[in-house]
Amino acid sequence: MSNPPRIGVLGGTFDPIHNAHLELARAAQAQARLDKVLFVVAAQPPHKRGGVTAPAEDRLRLVQVALLGEPGMEACPLELERPGPSYTADTLRELSKRHPGAEFFLILGLDALADLPGWREPETILQHARVLVASRPDQGDAIDPSLEGHYDFLEFPPNDMSSTEVRARLQQGDPVADLLPAPVIEAIRETGLYGAARA
Fold first, then answer.
1. Fewest CB atoms less than 10 Å from the CB: which of 13, 56, 80, 149?
2. CATH 3.40.50.620 fits 6-162, yes or no
């Protein structure tokens, strides 16, 4: 009998996707021996303060472009296919139906893990997936005791790269080659997203 597939789930607004997202996915893939990592693009993220800059379809396309040449990684449009806010519990439920028998691993930053008890249906999330945690530079986040035994830390160097910084640089015309994969930069310039100068 073959082992069940091990599937990582990395959700986010990806507004836009940047190198730290890819590095985190690679770390999770290697350390947790994941067969696949799904990049789940949030259509309407319920926890995002200040809204999302680019339309969901554009953000999905940038993720697809970023993952070309990344074996075992896929863009997942699941949250764009249903109306309303994108809740992780609903997404994991649907993924479990689509991949019966698979083991799921939810990839989060430490800040998100600390917030998880306040998410919708945290018990459902923990029933469907084990959590893989990347620590963030501000490691002062307190982890609720209810999460004990449900997560593992990844060896991942602190990284404060953010999509906010990427957008600011694009708008100002500053270089972003150190933050974004080259195909993503090209796609952004083609469309003029984030106020970037068109190529």
1. 149
2. yes
